[in-house]
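During the second year of the project, the team shifted from modelling isolated chains to modelling whole assemblies. The rationale, set out in the original proposal, was that interfaces cannot be judged from single-chain predictions alone. As a representative example for this report, we include one of the complexes processed in the last quarter. Its constituent sequences, exactly as entered into the pipeline, are reproduced here:
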Amino acid sequence: MTQAKATLHGNGDLRQTLVVVFLRGAADGLALMPPVGDDDYYRARPFTAVSKTAALKLNDRFGLNPLMNALEPAVKEGALTAVHCVGSGDTTRSHFEAQDLMEHGGHTGGGWLGRFLRFREQSSGGALSAIALGQAVPESLRGAPAATAMQSLDDFSFSGGDKFVQSLKQLYGGQTGVFGARARDTFNALGRIRELHAKDYSPANGADYGGDRFARELRLAAQLIKARVGVEAVTIDLDGWDTHLSQGPFISPLMRRLANGLTAFRRDLGAAMRQTTVVVMTEFGRRVSENSALGTDHGRGGTMFVLGGDGAEGRVIADWPGLKRDALVGPGDLPVTTDYRDVLAPVLRRHAPDADMVKVFPDHTPKLLGQADANA
Amino acid sequence: MEFNRRRFLQAGGTAALMGTAGCDAPHKALWPYTGLPHEAKPPFAPPSSESIDLATHTLNRLTFGARPGQHERILRLAKREEDAVAKFIDEQLAPEKINDERAEFRVHKFETLALAPIGEFYEFQPRLLRDELTRATLTRAIYSERQLYEVMVRFWSDHFNIDISKGECKWLKPADDRDVIRPHALGTFPELLAASAKSQAMLTYLDGRANRVRKPGDKPNENYARELLELHTLGVHGGYTQQDVMEIARCLSGWRIGRGLFQTGKVQFEPGLHDARAKTVLGQAIPARDGLDGRNDFDDVLRIVAAHPSTGRHIAAKLCQRFIADEPPAAAIDTVAGAFTKTKGDIRETLRALFATDEFRGTRGNKFKQPLHFLASALRATDAETDAGKPLANYLVRMGHMPFEYPAPDGYPAHAEPWMSTLLWRWNFAAKLAQGQIKGTRIQHERLAKRAGDSAKLAAHLLGRQPSDDELAAAKASENPLGLLLASPSFQWS
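Output from the structure prediction step:
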């Protein structure tokens, strides 16, 4: 596998793709992944708690919010890892600072995803290796060897016509060495981009994406991955999780969108999911107790999800302190017991064993995460 | 090259006038109000040689690419090409004598470049600071007449790389660019190094401000000390030990950045955070120093590392890699290192020696352009008008070469291989530029064609030599000849 990778540049048929979904605004981990087996949860959230019977069971303590029932097949097939009390060691409760810090991968410059793509032993990514779905390239991709923001397939077009490409082929045909090889890669990529534009996209396996923006972006991500243009990283944002008041009506549709989108994506990719991992993250979690406006305020420990297809998923990772007052930090928040980089590092190693992890997370030494004790 | 505040304000007034016209780049109709002389756009003669001649080669290496007529202008400086090129090099090595008001006028509108004192930067949105600094950088690369100076500003920005997205560098890097890199880019290396070592942005980026020794036994932060030796001065095989790193870290402990009224952003020495005991750095003893005297360690360390023979060799090798070849010949490095040592790190004289080597003069067309060089050279060659805004800069993001965004201390690589995966975006950029599809950037095709004379001459100008029959045929068949030539293999190299 490693050898094959070294000889495949640019289009990288064997490349794996990492899709990073950032839930901006600090998603409420206790709503997404409620500890329905913990009685204190019901005391802290008398009005907004999820009932044990309604939740989609992950293990004896945790469930998924029933609004995310679409993820049931992924849970049953062991494709989803859910992490609780996860976050950054920094105690800032500012969205901007916390997102910045998390996207940089610590107190450092540049984004962790950008460094992951740049600092490889064998090859750094091709021209289309990183795609940011949205208007701008996020902080996580800063410093990437290539990063393209796109909102639709049109942003991905090559503006030279057939004759332009023909003329380029004539001039580049005689080039040798690495330069010639990269030119040939680029012509291959152009051919695949052309195919992308030539036919309408229909998702496979009856995958049913919704009409919302998140679903459209995931659909586009699936399309690009299947077209094998060499995409190694995709970033997608899902905004609107900052729910200080009347949390329910605001995050219910978001949770549905998140679960439906991921489920359609997984179904659509089918076998290609083996080379794909989706990571869902957020800057921090929310206060354990709901506030008087039935919302929640900024907290610390939150949740992450990893959706993959290579059999390494299907776990609950939660070093759970309980919800008693003395287990909480600050004004009543879940502590961070798992560093988000310890969740990311094994995923990155799987995607590119030659990545220089010291450069990806320069101020963090990743720890190995153990299997969570399902009955603890 | 100090910034003149009054001139800035005057020009700012004019910029405001142009702002009301709803136009970002100085509009042609408004040039008369700028007080700048009319810019002539006469016909020009392109290079006529079949291979890259010395004048084109010199333009390729000392500038971000030839503008229309620049080759011809060099040849007119003297009767013999040799002498003419020597004069051009002399001109470029004395940027303070080059009138650059046309380019400076363009960057005057980026008002955050002039903020002072440094605490003022904290009052602004980091995004605005970054955008203005990036736009100014691109604008200068494209329009400045002081081309070698701008090339060296980029060289040192990579040598003393600071990633603007790290912590407070968001606010501090613009001042580092203005007060450290630009004033010393063609000055002396020891002064440049000293300025960088006390730069607020560098103290932040490499944690110098966090290097504190409160009591004996406290472990100093070694980050800056290590990069100072490995990257900024001696080089990784320059003959230092881990012990030297630790000793230098102790010497440099105690420097911090002030906070509060009138103190924000000021670099201060704090004796209570400094390791006062004696040290030995690269074999030289530094005595124990109490109280404020401890600050003298700083000057001692920088003097020792700047004068170390490995430093001259390291800088010479990097300059040769930038100006001669990815794997520069040892003889050239020896010559350049000799000049560096002899002149105590005078950057101009070091470069003068480099440009006089046979290796420099004889190794042509073998340097792969970094994306910023490619982009600027395409805009310069076509005499494009650009506001250097987002749609242009986005091509640098796609090609992984945004100024100030390299995510490690060693700066963007100067050799070809890492950049060769960017062809798709080079071709796309070339095609779109020629088709007028980059917002904020325009080429006047007719004027350019008329000035060049005919299509073969325009091709010779773009390629810096007579085009081959294949190139002419391919350009003609492409239906976008200008774009095709900018995307062609030759245009990717300098």
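Residues 46 and 347 of chain A are 37 Å apart (CA to CA). The longest helix of chain A spans residues 247-269.
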